[in-house]
Design a protein that fits this description.
GO terms for molecular function: ATP binding; kinase activity; metal ion binding; pyruvate, phosphate dikinase activity. Keywords: ATP-binding, Kinase, Magnesium, Metal-binding, Nucleotide-binding, Pyruvate, Transferase. Residues 54-283, 291-343 form the Pyruvate phosphate dikinase AMP/ATP-binding domain. Its EC number is 2.7.9.1. The model has no long low-confidence stretch (mean pLDDT 92). A hairpin with a 2-residue loop joins strand 11 (316-323) and strand 12. It is built from 35 helices and 33 strands. An eight-stranded mixed β-sheet has the order 14-24-23-16-17-18-19-15. Strands 26-27-28-29-30-31-32-33 form an eight-stranded parallel β-barrel, surrounded by five helices. The protein is of the alpha/beta class. The protein folds into four domains: 66-237, Acyl-CoA Binding Protein (Up-down Bundle); 248-337, D-amino Acid Aminotransferase, Chain A, domain 1 (2-Layer Sandwich); 383-508, Glucose Oxidase, domain 1, CATH 3.50.30; 543-583 and 591-633 and 691-898, Alpha-Beta Barrel (TIM Barrel). The chain is elongated, with a radius of gyration of 33 Å. Helices cover 47% and strands 17% of the residues. The structure holds phosphoenolpyruvate and magnesium ion. Phosphoenolpyruvate is lined by residues 572, 574, 632, 761, 782-785, 848-849.
Length: 899
């Protein structure tokens, strides 16, 4: 069966009928006033696209269903006396707004246009409908450049002194029809078809073809919509909102999609068709006005809205038309909404008894929560956007406009906040992007270089503001309306909405963050509904999740913040910052040590400092696990730069004031210099070749735990060895750690457990996880390095070098450093989990790469059976929410599979 009448489908048949068709069917079966029609399946489209031929049965099936529509309407398609007209509309499984084609008014011919005029008692309406058909059919079906039609319309308006289309009378439109027919003949080499069925069949084929229009292909690639789904085609009896003052067209939402508030939201335009609303020919009025214009239709619409909400159990958006006082539903779907509205609506629906708390949790997601946590512009501040572009990376940023990287860096170094404004960015702009509060470009979409890099940095970005005329050389841009902004002028950009403002818009902290940090009490009477909704859904998530959530934090303040955000410990304390600043000189001494005494002196100088670091951290996370990772980066990162030092030594030599210490240091830096430091002497390799380094760190950790215990605390510390590739590395470093811990125990009397585990961040570690597990108390997947080493990508370089091109060309939809590459890296994780647990059933498993806070990746880690994820403090709530959602969704899937 290739064609379904509306009464034969339902809302769950989106694969076959597309979203629009499935929902038209659902509304029909609910008894709502849907114009009669039918849907040609996506399967028919796929066959057509595969073979280039319309499937043989389609013609007869369309004939049968068309006859039913004709009977229902009491008219025949294109009948010269009283024609039935139909629309032919695309409708894929996933909404692809405006990407595919639609043809309205099929069935009008030189003869039936007169019948329509007579039946409607309106000449102008009939000729206007006919010229619209010629125009749409010409463009969509016959492939004629739309400019020909637009030019002819403009010329006619000039000639008649008519400012708007609506000022053209019936005679003028009739003349336009003649001109349009000439255009069709001249451009396509044939006359506009006068056989209505031929029009219909050609329009159906054209809509099938529009699945492969270039813009549709690009859109699908960006949205990760599969290219072989195909589109359904809906053939619907036309109803006319432009049939007089008692007609009109509108859109409605069952709640406010911006705030989630209950009420009547939408717009209405009297005596108009949907395309007039889009074209903005006249201003719409708020939907509530309809109550005064046509009370009966308004009341009926409100009833229908209530029915739809109750039925879909969610916010619905609706397109409707009123034809001479009669209401028709043209479309509905579960509507898009802002992040704040999503949380509010989900909890409202629970209160109204429409959905369960679990369902409410599945209706929001971590991306939305993350959006709500960015600082935002103060809603109370008056402001008017000067331009609007793509919301490429969320947040609110204010600063002085600068037009090149050098100025951005220079001004930023004097404490000035800047916004980097470029037509587009390239890898050369990277330093400027780092220095800027936000980035604004006039070209490129959400996968442009600026957007990708800004998101990677967590920096606010608005891109593709095409209405800005940016003159980089002169250091200024012009916005619509002649607004000029020069270098140094303050601008504000909203990466959540894509708005650009002149001057400073005050920024406020997100109330959601203030709630997470314990500053706002969700139970207080004056708490915002949004905060109450977030609190409630977080509680549901925490109650359902099986994944623990820890934080990556190195400093006591960060740890305290993470704890407030709900972290149940630290999954990764990177110790490298503990070797920076003043402490570099001890690292230098360690590297330069020529005998044990010198080396021991350097290590002993570091010991109390390290111990104090760990004590602070253990205090902030008292009672919760703290995983300390031993030093990972190559040592030369702590030493002077090779070039700088070489120059210094050379200059000193020339001046005859040689510094033997510098010269020794230079020899050491040269010795430690590596072509590929990320693959060189780092991680456990350092621990094995730099005597005493790891022992120092383990001693500091164990002594800090002992000190905390003496002070009445409950320290729970874990030691983690990085970059292990083989069990021998882990065994050797573990033996040393155990010896050191035993020594501290003996001296301090500390008896608490100190598990020793390893990171799994090399493919070889994953592939030999069974062996490694025998020497490890826990694994923590370092998915940053695991992604880098699995793909052979340098994590420091690729985002700027070529990821934008890869995203643009669809190699991947999202950076594998942002969201876990399940097919590749995920497979290694699965393998290591399985073989690690088989070797050691009590092996504790976590992840501490950036993916631990990425919503999609959290679902994967849940499925993989990890014990916890660890991520930056700010993402802890996101991970908690997603871990809860993952559990709810997995249970729902298991439930439906067992039914
Ligand atoms: C990792 O590689 O995933 C990790 C957490 O370690 P780092 O990012 O410090 O290399
Ligand atoms: Mg790593």
């Amino acid at each position: 069966m290739l064609v379904y009448g509306f009464a034969q489908g339902n809302k769950d048949m989106r694969d076959l009928l597309g979203g629009k068709g499935a929902n038209l069917a659902e509304m029909t079966n609910l008894g709502l006033p849907v114009p009669p029609g039918f849907t040609i399946t996506t399967e028919a489209c796929r066959t057509y696209l595969d073979t280039g031929q319309v499937p043989a049965e389609l013609h007869d099936e369309v004939t049968k269903h068309l006859a039913l529509v004709e009977t229902a309407r009491g008219k025949r398609l294109g009948d010269p006396g009283d024609p039935l007209l139909v629309s032919v509309r695309s409708g894929a499984k996933f909404s692809m707004p405006g990407m595919m084609d639609t043809v309205l008014n099929i069935g009008l011919t030189d003869r039936s246009v007169r019948g329509l005029a007579e039946q409607a008692g309106d000449e102008r309406f009939a000729w206007d409908s006919y010229r619209r058909l010629l125009q749409m059919f010409g463009k969509t079906v016959q492939g004629i450049d739309g400019a020909h039609f637009d030019d002819a319309l403009d010329a006619l308006k000039r000639d008649r002194g008519a400012p708007h289309d609506v000022d053209l009378d019936a005679g003028a439109l009739r003349e336009l029809v003649t001109t349009y027919k000439q255009i069709v003949r001249a451009e396509s080499g044939r006359d506009f078809p006068q056989d209505p069925r031929e029009q219909l069949d050609a329009a159906i084929r054209a809509v099938f073809d529009s699945w492969n229009a270039p813009r549709a292909i690009t859109y699908r690639r960006q949205e990760r919509i599969s290219a072989d789904l195909g589109t359904a085609v809906n053939v619907v009896a036309m109803v006319f909102g432009n049939a007089g003052p008692d007609s009109g067209t509108g859109v409605a939402f069952t709640r406010d999609p911006a705030s989630g508030a209950r009420g009547v939201y939408g717009d209405y335009l009297a005596n108009a068709q949907g395309e007039d609303v889009v074209a903005g020919i006249r201003n719409t009025v708020p939907l509530t006005e309809l109550a005064h214009l046509d009370k009966k239709s308004y009341d009926e619409l409100l009833d229908i809205m209530a029915t739809l909400e109750g039925h879909y159990r969610d916010l619905c958006d609706i397109e409707f038309t009123i034809e001479r006082g009669r209401l028709w539903m043209l479309q509905t779907r579960v509507g898009k909404r802002t992040a704040a509205a999503a949380f509010r609506i989900a909890t409202q629906l629970v209160d109204e008894g429409l959905i369960t708390e679990d369902e409410a949790l599945s209706r929001v997601d971590g991306h939305q929560l993350a959006q709500l946590m960015f600082p935002r512009f103060d809603e109370r501040a008056a402001r008017q956007a000067i331009a609007h572009g793509m919301n490429a990376s969320p947040g609110a940023a204010v600063g002085r406009a600068v037009f090149d990287t050098a100025t951005a860096v220079e001004w930023n170094s004097t404490g000035e906040d800047v916004i980097l404004v470029r037509r587009e960015t390239t890898p050369d702009d990277l330093d400027g992007m780092i220095a800027a509060r936000g980035i604004l470009t006039s070209r490129g979409g959400r996968t442009s270089h600026a957007a990708v890099v800004a998101r990677g940095m967590g920096k606010t970005c608005v891109c593709g503001v095409e209405t800005l005329d940016i003159d980089v050389a002169r250091g200024r841009f012009t916005a619509p309306g002649g607004v000029e902004v020069s270098e140094g002028d303050v601008i504000s950009i909203d990466g959540t909405t894509g708005d650009v403002f002149l001057g400073e818009v005050p920024v406020v902290d997100s109330p959601v963050v203030r709630y997470f940090e314990g500053e706002l009490d969700p139970g207080a009477a004056q708490a915002e509904e949004l905060v109450r909704s977030v609190h409630r859904l977080m509680k549901v998530a925490d109650g359902r999740r099986r994944l623990g959530v820890r934080a990556n934090a190195d400093l006591p303040d960060d740890a305290a913040r993470a704890r407030a955000m709900g972290a149940a410990g630290i999954g990764l304390c990177r110790t490298e910052h503990m070797f920076l600043g003043e402490r570099r000189r001890y690292v230098e001494a360690l590297v330069l040590a020529e005998d044990d005494a010198e080396r021991t002196a350097a290590l002993e100088a570091l010991l109390p400092l390290q111990r104090a670091d760990f004590e602070g951290l253990l205090a902030a996370m008292d009672g919760l696990p703290v995983t300390v990772r031993l030093l990972d980066p190559p040592l030369h990162e702590f030493l002077p730069d090779l070039t700088d030092l070489s120059v210094r030594v050379a200059l000193a030599g020339e001046r005859g004031v040689r510094d033997p210490q510098d010269e020794r240091l230079l020899r050491a830096v040269r010795r430690l210099h590596e072509q590929n430091p990320m693959m060189g002497l780092r991680g456990v390799r350092l621990g094995l070749v730099v005597p005493g380094l790891y022992a120092l760190q383990v001693r500091a950790v164990a002594e800090a735990a002992a000190a905390r215990e003496r002070a009445g605390g409950h320290p729970r510390v874990e030691v983690m060895i990085p970059l292990v590739g083989t069990v021998q590395e882990l065994e050797l470093s573990r033996e040393e750690a155990e010896r050191t811990i035993a020594d501290v125990r003996e001296r301090t009397g500390f008896t608490g457990p100190i598990p020793v585990g390893t990171m799994v961040e090399l493919p070889r570690a994953a592939l030999t996880a069974g062996a490694i597990a025998r020497a490890a108390d826990f694994f923590s997947f370092g998915t940053n390095d695991l992604t880098q080493t699995t793909w052979g990508f340098s994590r420091d370089d690729v985002e700027a070098a070529f990821f934008a091109a890869y995203l643009e060309r669809g190699v991947f939809g999202v950076s594998p450093f942002e969201s876990l590459d399940v097919a590749g890296v995920g497979r290694l994780v699965d393998l290591a989990v399985r073989e690690g647990r088989a070797a050691r059933p009590d092996l504790k498993l976590g992840v501490c790469g950036e993916h631990g806070g990425d919503p999609d990746s959290v679902h994967f880690f849940h499925e993989a059976g990890l014990d916890y994820v660890s991520c930056s403090a700010f993402r802890v709530p996101v991970a908690r929410l997603e871990a809860g959602r993952a559990a709810v969704l997995a249970d729902a899937d298991a439930g439906s599979a067992s039914r």
